[in-house]
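> tool_call: predict_assembly(chains=four)
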Amino acid sequence: MTNMTSHIHCQNCSMAALCLPYQLDQEGMARLDTIIQRHKPIQKRDILVHAGAPLKFLYAVRSGSLKSYTIDDNGVEQIIDFHLPGDVIGFDGLSENEHRSYTQALETSMLCEIPITALDELAEQMPGLRRQLWRLMSGEIFTSKQLLGTLNNRTAQQRVAHFLVTLAERFKERGLSSRSYRLTMTRADIGNYLGLSVETISRILSNLQQEGVIEVQNKLVEIIEPLRLREMAQ
Amino acid sequence: MTNMTSHIHCQNCSMAALCLPYQLDQEGMARLDTIIQRHKPIQKRDILVHAGAPLKFLYAVRSGSLKSYTIDDNGVEQIIDFHLPGDVIGFDGLSENEHRSYTQALETSMLCEIPITALDELAEQMPGLRRQLWRLMSGEIFTSKQLLGTLNNRTAQQRVAHFLVTLAERFKERGLSSRSYRLTMTRADIGNYLGLSVETISRILSNLQQEGVIEVQNKLVEIIEPLRLREMAQ
DNA sequence: AGGATTTCCTGATAGAGATCAAAACTAAAG
DNA sequence: CTTTAGTTTTGATCTCTATCAGGAAATCCT
């Protein structure tokens, strides 16, 4: 074994249900597993993919978290996504065969590397895999369009509440606590993503704490009143 | 012939290059054509699909234009997309097998109806079709994420300029004039989509006209200085 | 550990765009 | 052709959040 993580397979991966193997049987998982490489862990601030680089692989997050962002004409970063375990990175690049955004680790993270051409061949033979690819892409289309609605016509407090609720839901899907979690991104990242200034994020987190809806201690968030928070998000 | 439009086929459709048949050969187009139904024209204000309805078909726009929107908990409409000829409607629903948004005609429009199950079977056999489906979905992911960046951290004028430029580009792709076109949506629709009030849209269109960048007369837009407009969009 | 750097918080001010209000215009319907 | 409903425009005011500024806390690095 050249790789200390080579004992990890789709068949025993806890994220399988969210990831590509969803609904595949044991044999299907085994076949998918053969084309997937376990990527060495990447460290905080490391960049996984650069915008413009040829798209050879999709990446599935095994552990940790990352952010994707573009850089506009003025050199300003615009965060478009935060990735958690089970998420697949790179779908936005399929149409042009190159990555359309940068993806950077927010903490030490483990990834699976999925060669596109092999995946295409496999999808031809496996209807379940094909359907799951459609599901994942479709879900990404839906969530990003829903986010549009969230950002438009909503106050700063509603946006932040929505962000916290959505994160909680995502952690729950992954078998983690939806009541308390750690933010791996900075306040500036959250602000950038939601179209708000750092100061506004900080103020609103403080307000939500004063109102007893959440507890915040640095990166740690505890949701005290989930229902009220959900109401605030509308 | 029971249908006055039954002589229209993918093989002679002017939108084929933007739509599903992209890169298919004559035989491929013919096969795709057999599963596609020509839908009867729908009138302005008619609703093509309701959010929550089971997703049996995708729709390709042949002519006309439509808007897609969700309705939030407060009953407020949130427009998430405008569809032009060649666009495929319904990808956001694949993940849950039901439509996630309402789609309404902005003017009399012609549509092609594509049964999902038949499309899946065809995609299994035709790598080119499969790849085009991926392209279209991937493109939709990219553009909606890019729009996020456009709405965040941008002024009202930049948003409107971006909207006008993007529309011009889309018309150009479709072989229409990118210099002058007709807006089929209301100012209120544009505002809703861009997260701005009707009044702001109206004021900014007036300003752009005063500055000589565009001419607006009711629904008709003429772009006088494309480069300056593009600059304004950043 | 100790200094350096980044991140976070809080206050004060200003400005972009929402909202309120009303009139002018356009399109649809009788 | 007249009426009516919907859309667009313009003006005045107000509010939310960006920006500027300073300091506190946390984290990184040697």
